[in-house]
UniProtKB/TrEMBL annotation:
Entries under InterPro entries matching the protein: Glycosyl_04372 (IPR030808)
Source superkingdom: Bacteria
Protein name: TIGR04372 family glycosyltransferase
Species this chain originates from: Bradyrhizobium aeschynomenes
Amino acid sequence: MYDTISPEESTIERLTRRIKARIKPIVLRLAHFAFRVLRKSRARHFARNIAFTCLPFKARFRLTVWFRHFFNHGALDRHFVFFCGPFVKAHLDWILHGPFTRRHADEVAFYLLLAGYRTEALTVFRGVTQQKSRGVQGVDPFGNGYSMDLLTQIHTLNWSKLAGSSPQLRTFVRLMLEHRNFQYEERIFDGRVEAEQVSPDVLAAEYIPYFFRDRDIVDRLMRDLGLRDINGVIGRLEEGGHQWEQLPERTIDRELAFDVYLFYAYRHLLLRTYHFGEGDLVPLVYTRCMDTQRRLRRSLPSPSRELKRELDRIGTELSNVRLLSPDWSALIGHNGHLNVHLMMRKMGWWSGQPVLLAYNERIANKPFLSLFSDICPTLTLGDEGVSPAVWHELASLTPFLGDSHQAFQFKDGHSVYWNDAGSMALQQWERENRGFPLRDIYDARLRVDDRVETLYQSLRQKWGLGPDDWFVCLHMRDAEARGETLGTGESIRSATIGNYLDTVRFITDQGGWVIRMGGRRAPPLPEMPRVVDYARCEDQVPEMDIHLMRRARMFIGTTSGFAYVATSFGIPTAMVNALSSVGLLWSKDTRFSLKPVHTRDGRLLSLSDVTSETWRWTFPTYETVQAAGLTVSESSADEILETTREVLDLSSGAPPVIKPVDDAWEKCVNIPGFFGSSRPSRYFLEKYSASLLNRS
C-alpha cells in the first residue's frame, strides 16, 4: 500500500515525513523503556532535579507536558509547580497562543490549573480544536475549588469538539445535572461537621456562610433571602483565618459568570432546605432562582450550527426552549411528574417548547418514558441519532433554560414546591375531564404492536390465571429494595409486609389475584395461593411492569414513584401508608389512608396539621421527624383492608356500595389541592374523625 502524497509535496518533505513516522514509535518505545528503568533507579531524583534546575522555562514546560502526555503519570507535577509556576505569568502569551498548546490542550490546561491560572485554563479549554484527545487522568475539574469557575463558563465551550474528546468535561456536566457540582464545598463542610464546628442540619442562615466559598455569593444569598447572620458565623470564620474565594477578576463577562454561579447556589439550596426541614423557604429560594435565570436569558448564547439544525427539526428557537434535565426521566415517579408538567402546559400554566434530556442507562423504565416522545421531544444520550455535542451544549445551558423539578413559578410570579402545583394542576385537569394522555398513547401503540400483550397472556397461563381471572397490583415501599437503611433518611415512607396480608387474603377470597410489584431486592412474600411475587420473579421486564398496571383492576400503593403509573393510566388506587410533605398527584378514583403521626404528648396530627407550614416540612426524613419530636406509625391492617375494599367496590363498574366521603374534609386541608383529586377512605376518616378534622 502506498502513502497518499499531495502534488505540492516535495521529495525532501515526503522523505522527512516518512522518517518521522517510522522513528516516532521507536522513540516512544525507548522512552517507555527508559521510564520503567529510571523509576526503579535511585538516580531518578538526581536526573529530575538536574533537568528542572538547568533547563530554560520553555524546555521545562515542554518536558512536563510531554511526560504527562506520553506516560499519563504525574511524577513531574510537584517540580512543575515549584520550578515553573512562578514564571508562567511571564510566558502566558507563548503558552496560550503557541502550536504546542494546541497539540496538548488537555495537559496544558491541567498545568495552568496547578499553577493557579484558572481563567487561562478555561481559555485553553475553549480553544480546543483537536478532533481526538484521550483526556488526562488526574484532571479533576469537578472536585476542587476550580470547579465553579469552570461551571460558570461551560456554556462558552466548543462542544462539537469537547463532547467527543474530553471525558473529564462530560463527567463534569453529568455531575452538574445530578446536583453534585459542589463536591469541593461538601467535603469542606463535612470536615467541619466531623470536627464538631457545625451541626449537619444547621439552618440556612448558618449553612450558607459555612458551605459556600465565595464571599460575594454568600453576601448575595443572605441579602436576597432575607437571612441574618445573628450568630456571627462570618465574623468567626474570618477571625479563624478563613480564606474566601471569588471568581477571578479576569473572568470573561464576570457579571454573567456570577449569575450562573448564583443560579447553581439557589438550585443547591432548593434541595437542602427541603431535606433539612426548611421547606417553607423553597418558594422564596425558587423566586430568586428564577429572577437570576431571567437575567441570564438576556445573555443567552447563540446556538451552534449543529444545535440550530436540531432545533429546526423540533420546530422551535433556542429562546423558546424549556429544558428538562435527566431528573425528569431517572425515576419512574418523576416520569409521572413529567406527565402532569406537560398537562400544565396544555392548560396554559406555562409556555415554551419542552425538550427532555436523558441518559440512556439512567432511565427508570424506557417503555414508560417512550410514551412521552409523542408530546415532548426527547434527546437520549447514547441513542442512535442523538448528537453528543448537541446534547452537552443544551445541558450546558441549564442556567439559562432549565425547568426545575423541585419548584414551579406561576405566571404571576408566585412560586411553590413543584408537587404542590402539580396536585392542583391534576385536580383542574380531571375537573375539566381532559382524560389520560399517556393511556391513550399506550393503547394506540398496543393496537399497532401487540407483542407485549402476547407476552402478558403467556405469563398469565404460566402463573395459573384463568382467562376471566382479574388481579390487583400491589406495591409496598421497602427500604431494602431501595438500598436504604431502615430507620434513616427517606425510609420513613417505607412499610413492612405484615399488615398487608389480611388484604391479600381478602382479594384472593373474592376470586382475584395479587401481583406484587417492586424491585428485585424486595423481601419475599410468604407463599400464598393466587399470589405472584412478580418483584422477585425471573419474568420481570420493564415492558411488563407497565403492562400489568394497565391491565390491573386496581392498584394498592403508597407514596412512592410507581404509584404515578397508576395515576397516569387512570387505574383505581388504594393509597396506604402515605406520608408526604408536598402535594400528591392522586386521581379521582384514589382513596387514601395516611400514616398516623403523633406528637410527643400523643396527639394525632390532623389533616390541617399535616398540610401546614408548621408540620409538613418535618416529614422528608427520619431525622427531621425525630428532630420535631414526632412518631410515625404504619397503617394498620384494618386501615389497609378497608381502604382496599372501598376501591375494589369503586372499580366494579357498578354503583358503589361504599359511598365516598363528602367534600367537608377538604375544608380542613390548608393547601388547596394537596391530595389532588383523591379522597380519604371512608373507614380511615371515620376511624380518626375526632382528630383528623380538627382545624389547627
